[in-house]
Amino acid sequence: MLLPPRVLFAALAILFALGLGVPRSVEYAPFAVSLVLFGLPHGALDHLVPDRLAGRGATVRSIGAVVLLYAALGGLYLILWFLAPAVAFVFFIGLTWFHWGQGDLHALLFLDNAGHLQTPFVRAATVFVRGGLPMLVPLLAHPDVYREVLGSGTALFDTRAGATLDWAFDPTFRVAVGSAFVLVALILMAKEFMAVTPESRRPWANDTFETVLLVAYFVVMPPILAIGLYFCLWHAPRHIARLSLLNDPSRNALERGQVLLAARTFAWEAAPITVAALAMLIALYFVVPTAGVSVESLLGLYLVLISLLTLPHVVVVSYMDHRQGVWR
After folding, report:
1. What is the mean pLDDT of the chain?
2. How far is CA 59 from CA 47, 49, 75, in A?
3. Given CB 3.0 to 4.6 Å as the disulfide criterion, which of 152, 176, 207, 269 pairs with 300?
4. φ, ψ (nearest 5 deg) of residue 36
5. What is d(CA 126, CA 110) in angstroms, rounded to the nearest whole number?
6. What is each CA distance from 41 to 47, 134, 226, 239, 312, in whole angstroms?
C-alpha cells in the first residue's frame, strides 16, 4: 500500500533532477484534481470517525458533535484570517506541519509495522521531521515561490500582510532553521538506528528511505507541484486507508486485495461532505475581500478553505491517535 507512492516520487525526483520541466500552469493541476479526488475528500468522513472507533453505527449525537466542532473551529479560524492574515498563514503552516507528520507516523506504525519507533520522544521527533519535509524544505530550497504562495493567501484579506513575514525569507533565518531541523533529523535517525532489531530492520529501512526520498523530492521538484502531488498521492491516500480499516466492508475488501472496491466505497461515502466543502469554497469567494480569478488567487482561496477544514480535522485525527494508541 505504501510502495506505489515511494516508487512514483522516486521516479519524479530523478526526472526533475535530470532537467525535466513543466509549464507553470501544470504545477497547479494537482490542487485542481484534489478538489474531488483524494485531497479534499480525505477528511470527509470525520463525522463518522467517533462511532466507527467505538464499533457502532452512526449516531446523531456523534455526528452532531463533529459538525459543531467543524463549525466552531472553522468559524474562529476564518475570523483570524480577517483580523490577522499573516498570523493565520503561519498557524496554517504549523498546523499542516503537525498534521502531515502525524499522518506519516500512523502509517509507519500501523501500515509498515515500524517497531523501531518505540518511545514517545522518537515518535514526536518523527512527527516533527516528517511534517517538516513538505512544509520547511520548500522554504529552504525555493523561498521565492514560497513567498508567492504566502502572498496569494494573505492578499485575499490584506495586500500588505505578507510583508510582515519578510523575516522568514531572510537567508540567516533560513540557515538557522534549516540547521536546527537537520540536527533534529540526525538525532532521530541515530536513535532509530540504535533501536533497530532484526524484526524491525525492514520498516527502519523503509522509514529512512522515505525520509531521504522526500528531502530530495522537495528540493528538486517545483514546490507547488511537489506539494500538490504530496497532498493527493502521499498524505491523503494514507489517511483514506486508515479510515477504510475502520469500516468492515472496506477492511474486508482490502484484506482480499480489492483496493478499487474499498476506494469506491470511500468515494461514495465521502461525496456528500465533499460537495458541501466545494459549496463552502464558492461561498468563500464571495466573502473574502479581494478574491480574484487568477490561478494564484484561486489557489490562495483554496488554501484558506483547507486551513478552515484542517483545524477541526486535526482534532478528529488526534482523537483517532489517542484511541488507537499511536503515542503508547
Report:
1. 94
2. 10, 11, 24
3. 152
4. -125, -10
5. 14
6. 13, 20, 19, 10, 14
Distances (CA, A) of 2 to 16, 131, 201, 211, 251: 22, 17, 17, 13, 16
Categorize the per-residue pLDDT at 289 as very low, low, confident or very high, splitting at 50, 70 and 90.
confident
The torsion angles phi and psi of 114, rounded to 5 degrees, stand at -75, 85
- Cβ-contact 242, 110 below 8 angstroms: yes
Residue identified by cell 509495522 is: 113
CA atoms within 13 A on the CB side of 25: 1
Select the more confidently predicted residue: 57 or 141.
141
**Helices 295-324 and 60-83: crossing angle, nearest 10°?**
140
Residue for grid cell 509507519: 108
> In this structure, what C-alpha cell is assigned to residue 280?
463552502
Residue 170 scores a pLDDT above 70: yes
First CA to last CA distance, the chain = 24
Q: What is the pLDDT of residues 210-235, one digit of tens each?
A: 999 999 999 999 999 999 999 999 99
Nearest to 15 by CA among 283, 183, 219, 221: 221
Quote the CA–CA distance of 12 and 18 in Å, as a whole number. 10
On the 0-12 / 13-18 / 19+ scale of CB atoms within 10 A, 190 is: exposed
Is residue 248 classed exposed, middle or buried when 0-12, 13-18 and 19+ CB atoms within 10 A define those classes? exposed
Cell 473574502 sits on residue: 288
Residue 155 identity: A
Whether pLDDT at 201 is above 80: yes
Q: What is the pTM assigned to this prediction?
A: 0.95
